[in-house]
Amino acid sequence: MKISEIPAMKMFLLATIVGISFAFIDVNYIITIVGTSLFVILGGILFFFKKKDLAYYSAVIALGILCSSRIHYFEEIQPDKIIPDEFGVFQGEIVQMMSTKENYLRYIAEGNLNPQNLNEIKNTRVLITIFNPKYALIPGDKILSNVKIHFLEADIDPDGYSLKKFMKSSDINFSISTSGYNISKQTKVNSIRQISFGLRKRIVEQIFKIFDEKTASVMSALIVGDKSFIPKDVNENFKLSGTAHLLAVSGLHVGIISFIIFTFLGFIRNDVAKAIITILLLLFYVFVIGFLTSGVRAALMISVYLISQCLERKINPFNSLGLAALVMFLISPDVIFSVSFQLSVGAVTGILFFYNLIKSKFDAILSKVKFSSFISSSFSITLASSIVVSPIIAIYFDTFSSISPIANLIVVPIMVLAMSFGIISLLLSFISQEMSYYHALSGDLLVSIADELNSFFVSFSFSYYTGEISIIIALSFSVLMLYLITSNNLRVMSFRITAVFLCIILISNFKIKKAENEMKIVPKKNFTAVLLRNSNKNYLLLFDRKPANEKSGDFEITNFIMNNNIASVSYTGNSGISTIDKVKKEKKFDYFEMKLDIQEKIINLLKLKEHPSKIIHFYYD
After folding, report:
1. Do 89 and 145 meet the contact criterion of CB atoms below 8 Å apart?
2. What single string gives the DSSP state of each residue in 514-538?
3. Collapsing DSSP states into helix, strand and coil, what is residue 547?
4. Looking at the chain, which terminus has fewer C-beta neighbours within 10 angstroms, N or C?
5. Residue 559 CB: number of other CB atoms within 10 A?
6. Which own/partner contact pairs does 484-489 have at CB distance under 8 Å and 24+ positions apart?
7. Looking at beta carbons, which pairs linking 197-203 to residues 24 or more positions away fall under 8 Å?
8. How far, in Å, CA of 222 to CA of 244, rounded?
9. Which of 84, 94, 175, 166 is CA-nearest to residue 136?
């Protein structure tokens, strides 16, 4: 396949490269407009003289330069050392509700952030926590508020909870907080986001009426992409087994929706009318789920496919993917830095590149096995997407699932059936609750089976890897799979299977042989944390940075204490007291306040002249 055969993909790649390049060197607005105008004029002249190829490239460059002015990724300010919180002003729109507690509300918002002592950051995405709220906000509400900007801190445990990981997974750039008394709401009545949220809320409420609580939380994620109700243990099992993509609206979900729509529209004989109605209903579905990136990409690809069929044009899936990505890039250039966009496009790219190659190998091996076609197809799709997606997941989330191919082979069909029963039950519930009840029982059973299977899969020590080692293993996996699937014949493939198997054993042992004893000195805003690990036991020392710190606990530290084997915690100052007070009633562990002379001895022993600004980390025997 030549690049000339996929013009939309070529245009997307070139426009992206040009756009990122100009955004990176921070070209000002005037140069952007002048550059865009010059290349547009040049393209027109070249086209007039029938130099179509050069005119095409000129137009693409103009497009890239124009989009560069709306790329704000390189304007973000996230220091790699501890700095104090910064006061500022945020003006923007609520995008998503995250959590509601008795004394605070948490949302994702998009808008402009203007720090007091730093440059303004435009069109950024923030996690905003509102303490002592006067009223609840909903997606679509526009707000203006004085805020406190919290710069990210180092993680004490890369394998555990990390605010950095959460923010990356949600494409959030900053964490800010404010009091409910500082919020000024500038609501635009019946905005698109408000209508979308209202419809989504109504559907979720209906789902919870039909299914039991656990199944309803999963169905909400499957059908409308609302993962806020999923229990922590269920979410963790799906993530570690490599089936977390089932809980996020993707091509699979949109494909199922499309199939159901097509089935219901079977009475329409006119293909053009059926395609138009399907596309409109898909656009409505994308609107209901809040324009989730992966959903938009999948809907655009299916729409391109349907339009191409109606026009009787040759359909190239790479071109469909390129066109979908190009449209999303033109609407919001920053989308190329979105984790969900990278995972969505990466998964489809992997399938398009490697699926047929992998399937041919499996077909040759499993030719005499019953259900060989289903097995080889399922394995091939999972492996093909994993070759591209696994390194991305490991880089952003420090997780690699080695059990993923087997888990997906079994869990995916179960969840596809569960979603199908869920959608049918939901539709029937608006007609008759009794009719929907029987389909709902099937959905309950299937979700329970999937959850139990995931729990079983992740129970093995080799089923997943977390932490920094996961990146090495994920990259090794992708390279080894490429080495394996490029075998010319079964003989070469047999040799490579043996070689790959031995490499996997060596890589797995690398994790096991990791030193058990380690010391990590982690700078936090209010204190310095010293973590000592010895034979799977954790000893934690917390030193306040200031003698009179305000009483403010640390969520990551408390979470670490709750989820690990803690032998003892020693602490000093108000921040240490506040952190320990939050967990000592919920978990039993030894804790005591250090006296000043002991603190000085430990500091001298660690050879710390002052509080560090970066992580100090080493292993010892």
Report:
1. yes
2. S-S-EEEEEE-SSEEEEEEEETTEE
3. coil
4. C
5. 18
6. 484/361, 485/354, 485/357, 485/358, 485/361, 485/383, 486/357, 487/361
7. 197/138, 197/139, 197/140, 197/290, 199/287, 199/288, 200/224, 200/226, 200/288, 200/289, 200/290, 203/288, 203/426
8. 11
9. 94
Residue 270: alpha-carbon gap to chain centroid? 40
Q: Identify which of 199-213, 264-278, 292-306, 473-487 has the greatest average pLDDT.
A: 199-213
DSSP code of residue 594: P
Contact between 115 and 164 under an 8 Å Cβ cutoff? The reply is no
Q: Nearest CA to 106 among 143, 141, 137, 85?
A: 137
| CA angle in degrees (0–180, nearest 5) for 399-326-386 | 25
Going from N- to C-terminal start, the domains of the chain cover: 3-71, 77-185, 252-331, 518-619
Within 10 A of 48 (CB to CB), how many other CB atoms are there?
9
- Choose among 29, 128, 121: nearest CA to 73: 121
Side chain identity at 2, as an amino acid letter? K
DSSP 513: T
Looking at residue 569, the DSSP 8-state letter turns out to be E
Distance CA(156)–CA(519), nearest Å, equals: 11
590: region left, alpha or beta (phi > 0 left; psi from -120 to 50 alpha): beta
Average pLDDT over residues 158-173: 72
C-alpha–C-alpha distance, residues 85 and 465, integer Å? 34
* Dist. CA 340–CA 171, nearest whole Å: 8
β strands within 101-173, DSSP E: 104-115, 121-131, 142-150
* CA 272/CA 50 separation, integer angstroms: 35
What are the tens digits of pLDDT across the range 387-446? Answer: 999 898 888 877 888 888 888 888 988 998 999 889 989 988 888 777 788 888 888 999
Runs of H (alpha helix) within 458-568: 469-485, 490-512, 555-562
How do 184-185 and 142-150 pair as beta strands? antiparallel
- Judge whether 351 and 388 are in contact, CB under 8 Å: no
Q: Are 213 and 205 in contact (CB under 8 A)?
A: no
Distances (CA, A) of 230 to 247, 286, 344: 9, 21, 21
Highest mean pLDDT among 180-189, 426-435, 529-538: 426-435
Mean pLDDT estimate for the chain? 82
| Residue 614 half-sphere exposure toward CB, CA atoms < 13 A | 2
CATH number of 77-185: 2.40.50
